[in-house]
TrEMBL record:
The keyword Flavoprotein does not apply. GO terms for molecular function: methyltransferase activity. Its main location: cytoplasm. It comes from the Bacteria. Its EC number is 2.1.1.77. This is Protein-L-isoaspartate O-methyltransferase. It comes from Streptomyces pyxinicus.
């Protein structure tokens, strides 16, 4: 990127910060200044944009950040920056198929998480998931480089991010390692922010967080997940709530090269069907409902299922049980199941409960993780609790 292009980016920087303020993602002057200062284009020299090619195949088309693409880089959009080498296949000179493994996150989501983190002058921050280095640069702009530490499982990403951070004028401590094990050096932190999803908050994060410190991370709970803001007590209990920000991140991984293949059990044969009031439209429309289902059914997942009858939403369990409802058509109110029929009954009970308490949003639910123990969610107004994987 030329000096001229860097100067040309200044209006886009200012416009992005103003848009994030206008939409409520940025709520304070220090973060407005950071987003107006840190040049995103330095951290995303190339990215992939998904499109359908002339054969009807969904591909990732490589884009380059040149003078003509500055406006695209400064959109409030997630930019995929790396594909899984185990699944990526080049199908054209500038196009690949495969699964993304790293990205520059949606700026409004980043801003909301940084605001929720509640940093203050003098705080030491650990970032899990360095990625491009853009988020670390924003933290450096707010707190100074010496306060920022970042870890990523991919040594290549770490090296590239460190160089881009240096070019942008920042010098945080960036190391390679499995972020779920915490920072590789025995430091403690006032704040921890994770830009990857985890099934439960790792013990290592709680151990490295000072009492009163804050963790902001994305939890994936099988059916659904969400962003939580947790504070660590002196007893080692990390306790807090789901935030008003809604967003999902790629899963944390222990292998820098790829995501491990997930073993799938053989599904039970179809055993019957019956009418249901819980439709695919309800499940797709209401994110808090899916979160409540995840509390009720912590061992289940929600997937799309396609067969000769069309597309459906399917709940399934590790024992092979499943239950599904079509997305559309005359059978949209009919549930078909295999294995344990109570799977869908539990889902209907969760749906009735959520309706009965007024369809609360996700920020009406708390989450707690005990150091070395289990985890649970609860409904803030009444205290109703659900045990979750720890």
């Amino acid at each position: 990127m030329s000096v001229t292009a860097h100067d040309a980016a200044r209006p886009y920087l200012a416009a992005l910060a103003q848009d994030l303020v206008a939409h409520g993602a940025i709520r304070s002057a220090p973060w407005e200044e950071a987003f107006a200062t840190v040049p995103r284009h330095l951290f995303v020299p190339t990215w992939f944009e998904q499109e359908t090619d002339e054969r009807g195949i969904a591909v990732w088309r490589r884009r380059h950040t040149d003078d003509e693409e500055l406006a695209a880089v400064y959109r409030d959009a997630t930019l995929v920056t790396r594909l899984d080498p185990e699944t990526a296949e080049q199908v054209a000179p500038d196009a690949w198929t495969g699964f993304p493994t790293s990205s520059s996150t949606l700026p409004s989501l980043m801003a909301g998480m940084l605001e929720d983190l509640g940093v203050g002058d003098g705080h030491r921050v650990l970032e899990i998931g360095t990625g491009t280095g853009y988020n670390a640069a924003l933290l450096c702009a707010r707190l100074g480089s010496t306060a920022v530490h970042s870890v990523d499982v991919d040594q290549g990403l770490v090296d590239a991010a460190r160089a881009r951070l240096f070019d942008a004028g920042y010098n945080p401590c960036v190391l390679a390692g499995d972020g779920t094990l915490g920072y590789p050096q025995p430091y403690t932190f006032d704040r921890i922010i994770a830009t990857c999803s985890v099934r439960a908050v790792p013990d290592a994060w709680i151990h490295q967080l000072r009492p009163g410190g804050v963790i902001v991370t994305d939890l994936t709970l099988g059916i659904e997940g969400g962003l939580v803001r947790l504070s660590r007590g002196s007893d080692g209990l990390a306790r807090g709530f789901f935030t008003t920000n809604a967003g999902r991140f790629m899963p944390a991984r222990a292998d820098a090269r790829t995501y491990p293949a997930q073993a799938r059990p053989e599904r039970a044969p179809a055993a019957g069907s019956r009418p249901t009031s819980l439709t695919a439209a309800e499940l797709r429309t209401h994110y808090p409902l899916r979160l409540v289902l995840a509390f009720h059914l912590p061992d289940a997942e929600l997937v799309y299922h396609h067969d000769e009858e069309g597309l459906a939403l399917q709940l399934q369990r590790p024992d092979g049980s499943w239950a599904r409802v079509p997305l559309a058509g005359d059978s949209a109110g009919i549930m078909t199941f295999g294995g344990d029929e109570s799977l869908w009954q539990h889902a209907e009970e969760a749906w009735r409960w959520w309706n009965g308490v007024g369809r609360p949003a996700q920020d009406r639910f708390g989450y707690a993780r005990e150091f070395g123990g289990g985890a649970y969610a609860w409904y803030l107004p009444s205290g109703r609790r659900w045990s979750l994987p720890g």
